[in-house]
């Protein structure tokens, strides 16, 4: 097909030119590298008998060059096989000149003329490739808006350095490259999508990088992928000011971290901290607290059908609310006001400092510091003050003695009578001076000894106890159940936000737990207080928050809308929505959308990108044949070209029992700490599936079937939207998947 494009020869020549440019560049760099290797070798040889410090410097210089060029070279070597994926021709309105730009994953310029050979997809002008329509266009550069005309937008398929296809995009053509990319298979890792980022996604990737952003995106709209690309953009734009080590990604579990981590080096965003909220809080408070798995709690809600489910859901929601944060604020205020140093500090009759002054230091001067930092600061100020005053006090004792002595001298002329009095005065003076000299800074510690120094966990228990004293039955019950757990050192996820917040407000955060930027994926499951505490603890509001309320399976404690986040937590945030779903076929998405429209019409449904596939299959079996039917369905999925297949049950109990029955090496039971194994059928419960995707998904129930509750509808929706190409329901009736007969 490429042969037919009128510009084929020109483009082939251009590709050859680019490849030889890169190869020459690589050769020159490799030569330099060899030279530096030789230098190192020489320096090592000379180390014994020459001036060793010079040789050492030699080694250092060369080793450093060797290191940087090695990583650059590795990057370029990768690029040479596919130097670019797109081209734009842009005519600058001001100069009237038209230039062609080839867009790839690096920037390369000719050394002498500084002409661009390839431009990085993250450079400002490359934005035209993603959102520019042919004709009048503009892009934002450092110097301001650049207007002009986009005259050509072209895509290339280059495989192994060979130009295979050229596609020109005009207003009417569909993005075929996207279609090709989406029809590919998922091999258990997140892809980098720089060549096919869509306009609505590009807006999220490039939206003002100096502001927080909240993204509500439907299932499969590319939230996770886009978050990583925005991060790549951020690091590229602020490479001078930002150290990737000061960026943190928060993901729901290790399984998910493993899933995204493979995409990070491709985007040049390795080295960033990837962790879970629980792990971050553990590090921040410096204690490996035992935290009950929140999915287990979900299970309690799902499986046990306990009577107090309503109470559990209420307590979880309340602990995650900003009202609860206010309660913690009030507790901190009360605790601070228990700081009373009413007495003045007196030594030998001198007032070293007044209680009032200490209070002023604490409540006014250093009020900006966390409580315990403030106590430390006030102590150190008092100690320094005391050292200064010591000399003054000594002088005042001497002066006082001189004055008394003078008085005695003039009032008592008889020396015999006067002598014992003088001796007494001397003794008194010496005693006082000794006492002052011997008094050290410890007197300040002693003076402030009544100020309690507690551990953060003890503060939380104290806070809970105080809540339990209120005249409110729900609070009393919450306090009672929480304290019972806390006393045996068991925490729930909902306890972590208040703990983190208390840690920040009372003790302050260590540098290693503060960040310049934070990315939160699957944010619909975070509570407002969790987000608030994170903002306070990390010391930045530069958050990228992505989520989908329709998938809010933890909504009993999570978010119900984004308004609270925008109004009360990140008021400067930009808000964007992603409405298109790229993951699934039209057929699968429509089936999932039907579920939402029928059962939860207030939630957003996704608009699938036009890509057709087979209709979801409902396979009716009786109980005894379930396992056989599943095995047959798996076979069918492999045969239809799936590279990854999963069986999703409603609960973990069901997943485990199915796994035990299956007993095959080709099957893996997924838990949240596991890594997905290539080529194996993954069996997992619905709530662990969020964020992941598989070519083929088979839904099956064990003992439990999905009920018509908000939670179950969302769980089912999450499970269904994991499928890229094939979706199967295996069950006795369609109703168990909340579907009417005749799916
Ligand atoms: N512009 C794009 N070009 C190619 N593939 C894309 C594009 N956008 C998204 N995808 C693909 O769509 C799938 C879904 O992306 P991703 O997992 O990032 O979505 P998500 O919004 O986080 O999904 P969910 O909320 O359902 O977990 C991935 O396979 C991703 O590679």
Task: Kindly list the characteristics that best describe this protein.
single chain, binds adenosine-5'-triphosphate, Rossmann fold, 48% helix, 7-stranded mixed sheet, 6-stranded parallel sheet, alpha/beta, 743 residues, 4 domains
Q: What does this 3D model show about the protein?
A:
Strands 1, 2, 3, 4, 5, 6 and 7 form a seven-stranded mixed sheet that branches. This protein has a six-stranded parallel sheet with strand order 10-9-15-16-8-17. A six-stranded parallel sheet has the order 20-25-24-21-23-22, with helices on one face. The two termini are 40 Å apart. It has four domains: 2-197, no CATH class; 213-292 and 512-581, Rossmann fold, CATH 3.40.50; 345-448, no CATH class; 586-737, P-loop containing nucleotide triphosphate hydrolases (Rossmann fold), CATH 3.40.50.300. It has 743 residues and is α/β, with parallel strands linked by helices. Strand 18, helix 22 and strand 19 form a beta-alpha-beta unit. It contains 25 helices and 25 strands. The longest helix is centred in the middle third of the chain and has 41 residues, at 371-411. Bound molecules: adenosine-5'-triphosphate. Adenosine-5'-triphosphate is lined by residues 178, 181-182, 186, 191, 193, 196-198, 201, 217, 219-225, 548, 551, 582-583, 691, 693, 721. InterPro entries: DNA_helicase_UvrD/REP, HelD_bacillota, P-loop_NTPase, UvrD-like_ATP-bd, UvrD-like_helicase_C. This is DNA helicase-2 / ATP-dependent DNA helicase PcrA. It comes from Salimicrobium flavidum. GO terms for molecular function: 3'-5' DNA helicase activity; ATP binding; DNA binding; hydrolase activity. Pfam families: UvrD-helicase, UvrD_C_2.
